[in-house]
Amino acid sequence: MSMATKNNANPKYKHVSAREKYCFGIGAIGKDAIVNLVGAFLMLYFTDTLYLAPAFVGVLFFVARIWDAVNDPMMGMIVDNTRSRYGKFRIWLIIGTLANSVVFVLLFHSFNLKGTALYVYVSIMYILYGMTYTIMDVPYWSWLPNLTNDPHEREKVSVIPRFFASLAGFSVATFGLYVIHGLNKAAGEENLYAEHGYTVFAIIIAVIFIVTIGITVFNVKEEATLGSKAAKTSLKQAFHIIIQNDQLVAFIGLLLTFNLCTQIAKSFAVYYFKNVCGNEYLYSIFGFAIIAEMAGLIFFPKIASKISRDKVYFWACSLPILGFVLLGAFGFIAPTSAVFVIISCAFIFFGSGLSLGVTTCCMADVIDYGEVKFGVRNESVTCSAQTFLMKAAMAAAGGLSGVGLQIVGYNAKLETQAPGTIMGIRIMMIIVPIILGALSYFIYNRYYILKGEKMAEITEKLNQLHK
After folding, report:
1. Which of the following CATH numbers is that of domain 19-224+235-466: 3.40.50.10860, 3.20.20.70, 3.40.50.720, 1.20.1250.20?
2. What's the distance, CA 455 to chain centroid?
3. What is the DSSP letter of 428?
4. What pTM does this model have?
5. Spans of all domains in the chain
6. The dihedral of CA 289, 295, 297, 300: what is its sign?
7. Which is nearest to 342 in space by CA: 397, 436, 274, 273?
8. What pLDDT, in 10s, does the model give residues 403-428?
């Protein structure tokens, strides 16, 4: 009998039905379609549609995420302290989804404001976007570790929402420019980057967001927390939990560096293909290659069952490094070759898929470790660190993109950029992600210890604690 079979037969483990697994995962479609439209196209919308100064946009992205450094743990604390007959995750997921949908659409609609008024408006909308996304995202990912406590089943369950998230990212990145341009053409807009296309596309995604989260909240069971005697967490305790949990700190380091690796590449990709390769539509191929990320997620459980997670994460970091090296080389040899872009991005995104599988399991393991170490299971506070990291990586990438483009002299109104500008974009798109990918594996290998026998020991202690 296999180890997985033994675990499934063991009554000490909590299990979840197939229907709930997939209904939970479907919720990631809308939420990640939103985050991918913002991550992939908001910078372009600000610089090439609204003609905002790139440096201002970069600073805005960075400052907004400084606020999220406080906002995310606060939301984690609020969720952990929620007591209701509907549970503590579902209610905030509904509130956050509705609020974020409205703000998201307003983010891509300027009401024809100009000058200072426009700068103030986009600043307020972007900060509100981050806050309302947090209200929804923290309870969503906090819910995941509570679906099952079986380590082997977690590897399978964690893949499902990540797969649907990648599907959303694939769809937005691959077809985003075509949809935006098509909507503008249908409206008679001569400028393919006109605001109308962004606004209508945002409305479509917001509707999908509400529907898919609705499938999650109405089909996944959650235990009531009304009358729960669990101790409430203060804001001071929330930060203490994050800082004192050494494995959470290590996890933050490895996840932040890998997210920066991929997010910086995604932020610069449209500029890279438009200005370095001379064909902005190669970005759609870059997005299409995200199907390799989905493949990495699908194969992750099987690969993890054959080799250790240590080796899986080695390949998760090594494959993107190889992909960036190839993408950079092909940028000189055959910059307009779609085939070479697909080959390069297949390595990048397959590795990214493996990384998503490993880190999602790590998040659940860190929560278990925190409960053993502190005696309190603060899922939402711990998961808030993950949501902060995702947004921090996107913000840092956006900030680096804005400030970097300004430094290298990028001018959205020019047909052809200066040679120094093009070289600067090459460095940001290729060299910086390679360094960050290598750093992520170094942190995982050197400082993250929740692996193999150590994690088995934590699980045993947790079961004894629950008894």
Report:
1. 1.20.1250.20
2. 25
3. I
4. 0.69
5. 19-224+235-466
6. negative
7. 273
8. 888 888 888 777 788 888 889 999 98
pLDDT tens digit string along 177-234? 899 999 999 999 888 889 999 999 999 999 999 999 999 999 988 776 655 555 566 6
Cα Rg for the chain, rounded, in angstroms? 22
3-state per-residue secondary structure call for 280-297: CCHHHHHHHCCHHHHHHH
In terms of Cα–Cα distance, which of 171, 397, 392, 174 is closest to 267? 397
**Exposed/middle/buried for 178, CB within 10 Å: 0-12, 13-18, 19+?**
exposed
Distance CA 114, CA 93 (A): 35
pLDDT at site 347: 95
Tokens 């898929």 identify what position?
353
Percent helix, strand and coil across the chain, each rounded to 5? Answer: 80, 0, 20
Amino acid identity of residue 142, one-letter, is S
Instruction: Please count the CA atoms within 13 angstroms of the CA of 160 that sit on its side-chain side.
Output: 21
Q: d(Cα 293, Cα 167) in Å, to the nearest integer?
A: 9
